[in-house]
Amino acid sequence: MSSAVESVLVEKRVFQPFKALVEQANISGMDAYRALCDEAEKSPDEFWSRLARENLLWDKPFSTVLDESDAPFYKWFSDGELNVSANCLDKHLDTPTADKTAIIFESDDGKVTKITYRELHARVCEFANGIKSLGYKAGERAIIYLPMSIEAVVAMQACARLGIVHSVVFGGFSARSLNDRIVDVGATLVITADEQLRGGRAIPLKPAVDEAFGMGGCDAIRHVIVYRRTGGTIDWTEGRDLWMHDLCQGQPTTCEAVPVNAEHPLFILYTSGSTGKPKGVQHASAGFLLWALLTTKWTFDAKDTDVYWCTADVGWVTGHTYITYGPLAAGLTQIVFEGVPTYPDAGRFWEMIQRHKVTVFYTAPTAIRSLTKAAETNADVHPRRYDLSSLRIIGSVGEPINPEAWMWYYTNVGGERCPVLDTWWQTETGGHMIAPLPGATPLKPGSCTLPLPGIVAGVVDEAGKDVEPGKGGFLAIKRPWPGMIRTVWGDPERFKSSYFPPELKGYYLAGDSAQRDTDGYFWIMGRVDDVLNVSGHRLGTMEVESALVSHPLVAEAAVVGRPDSTTGEAVVAFVVLKRDLPQGEEAVEIAKQLRDWVAHEIGPIAKPRDIRFGENLPKTRSGKIMRRLLRVVAKGEEVTQDVSTLENPAILNQLSQSV
Ligand code: PRX
Fold this sequence. Notes:
Number of strands: 30
Distance between the termini: 30 Å
Number of helices: 20
Bound molecules: adenosine-5'-monophosphate-propyl ester
């Protein structure tokens, strides 16, 4: 950790908030920020109670705020009832927002479709009525495996309307990953599309669902609802498969929003951990919604006139919080984009910002870094070629944004007029946790700055004691907050052991290392566990290893991350085959087979960038794989550490050869 710590401490630049933003901000100036923090600190219950009453529509008001009786299984507003979809849609119907554009959808090939809040409400109601007509009830689980589309938002909102718990699976995940999630979550319904379009290519979705069913364990599924996106040829199982448009046909455009308990699960989203299969992060209805809405108002300084664009996919938490729920609850006009940043060329984002007059733009450092590279080699796709003057706020999420990328984003995209919001959070936190406020927080490139009001964050040692400023430690959240994970679906023990280790005094352990500087600013250093961050996507090394060893040729595999200037980290796999060491062309061929295998088992995002074959892996005499050394070898560096405990030091040489 120490070298990374050194590198951030030299960053001294500070950018004060822009006057124009401060003047009209929802939280205006540091005094207003501190006042909210003080209010939360003095009486957390009153603080959260006030915000929950002021921001949410309740069918039955709550009388308890935080119930800590079964910590760390915290409950929020637990005797209250509401409906999340009613809070995102119905609440706007008698206001001017009803006829405002809710979603500007742009397809991969550039076709634009707009839908108002009133129309979106009707679409959600029709679909919810359709699902209801099939006999589905609150509490059942639906898998959503859809491309970025209005239909994806409609599907999620329709589930929320009926109290059906959705579990969205990213369209880039394979049939195997889909099967794992269907089985683990105990789904009874699947909502998918025939195909998805990305970068001019059609990618099958419904066929992956059929393949997932063929893997077994999916007998509880009663229906597969299919959105016709491309009209591509697909197999059909009569009685089980239904077209979304047929199901919605003739359904009433109103549908009662089912009031659910505040703690009723809104969704389960799978994410990678350091061990075993991905875990189902369970979020609750009221607390999640409150945090999604508050952070949309605070961090993005949501304004009625905004054209907001979060480029994430609804398959990830960012798409849940900052596409499907937060912006709709806040009544924003937002862009939903089907395609990729590089199609038809790497100017796509900038051209869309110009054409739609986007005011708030939220994307990932990987996208920024790859578009920087593209702009440096092709002036036609450089952001300065476009009119980006509509922008007022630009944000970043998913991985550390290095100061160079921050400055490029600030200068070339933000035109030195827009604050760069580096937002730190996780699937488990439900929404932003440590992030600047555009009208208040002075910015430092590379720092996610300060905790949001109500969030008590710290950097602690193994015993939960605060470390000194400038020293690295574990990032911990010291008090519960409404948007937090409630449990790991079906595995409460894993929830406790992963996030609330006993030695940490009941703090939530984020799994990241961090340090604070003398101004209290947070600098995130990366994961402390065996979780990789590839292009902002979380990936467990164990998952990739299990995929590799399930290939008939593979005897053993170890996976580590290697720093990468575009994707943040790249997957490097060290593989021992059941046969002799392959050479030359043959090695290249087997490596390709293994990459395709991993893509098939998990999804293309997990494909190892680099595969190294060896006759063995570096192990201690007790048989433990020395990953620490593999990380050094993966970077192409000389091993200078002590290798005397190694059973087979010569193996390092062999593993340093790339295929
Ligand atoms: O390591 C942190 C990194 O992404 C992890 C969370 O990944 P996920 O649950 O997939 O959620 C991504 C979208 C919120 C964190 O543990 N991470 C996320 N945001 C940042 C970050 N690392 C540094 N800076 C950030 N702003």
